Amino acid sequence: MKAMIFAAGLGTRLRPLTNDRPKALVTVGGKTMLERVITHIAESGFDDITINIHHFGDKIVKFLEEKSNFGLNIHISDERDLLLDTGGGLLKARKFLEGDDEPFLVHNADILTDIDLKAMYDYAKQSDTLSTILVKPRVTQRYLLFDNTNQLRGWINKKTGETKPKGFNYKPGEYNELAFGGIHMISPKIFPLLEDYARGERVFSITPFYVDECGKHAIHGYQPREDYTWLDVGKPDTLAQAESLFNLHCSG
After folding, report:
1. What ranges make up the beta strands (E) of 79-191?
2. Is the pLDDT at 225 greater than 90, yes or no?
3. pLDDT reported for residue 250
């Protein structure tokens, strides 16, 4: 089973911690975010992992070497020359993620969770989706909009009132308004579609692709039935929250 970890971000919200290291190597409860994500992914059955790098990327390479790649098959997708954003980063890593018809996992390095990733993988495989996106009912400004079959239908910025895709008719109460949770299960069938969407651009985000293409392809939101812990550790307040949580677990 294949996976990709997005670890190339600049980590601007965590400065000054990221002034001398990538965000993925910031520690939480004595372990780096990257180690925690890799461990969770591996325990879920993913043993072929691609990690993209940019900001202090050499330190991630060195860290993985010191850990003997955690005994896994790990590839580096090197973006040190140009940070490609999520869509561009996915396309650059294409050669590592293609090769079969199975979904692959994409996981942000700053998302720490105990979600059952194998269950999410099984859902994506059985539903034959182009992409299955972890979503949560949390407070934010921007929401993905899903119908009652979990199909993505659009996007809204509640602060500005902007909606997408073009021509989308938003009606309050008609859709489930959910926030993206930083984890997707993606079919390799996405790659030619991303190529067409990018039109030669190297730097682009995958979220606008999802929104623009949701009328043509099965792009589902996924909400686990069981309770689970989920933290976006890309900000100082949530980093402190994660520190408290993992320190509590260690002492408990």
Report:
1. 104-108, 111-113, 131-136, 142-146, 152-157, 163-164, 176-186
2. no
3. 41
Boundaries of domain holding 7: 2-251
Give the tens place of pLDDT for each residue, 18-28: 888 999 999 88
Q: How many domains does the chain have?
A: 1
- Please report the pLDDT score of residue 247 as a whole number: 58
Tracing tokens 């294949």 back to the chain, one arrives at: 2
Q: Which of 218, 223, 214, 222 is nearest to 153 (CA)?
A: 214
Judge residue 80's burial from the number of C-beta atoms within 10 Å of its C-beta, 0-12 exposed, 13-18 middle, 19 or more buried: middle
Q: SS3 of 64, please?
A: helix
SS3 content of the chain, % helix, strand, coil (to 5): 35, 25, 40
- Burial of 137 per CB tally in 10 Å (0-12, 13-18, 19+): exposed
142, burial (CB in 10 Å: exposed 0-12, middle 13-18, buried 19+) = middle
**133 by DSSP, 3-state: which?**
strand
Q: What share of the chain has pLDDT > 70, as a percent?
A: 97
CATH number at residue 221: 3.90.550.10
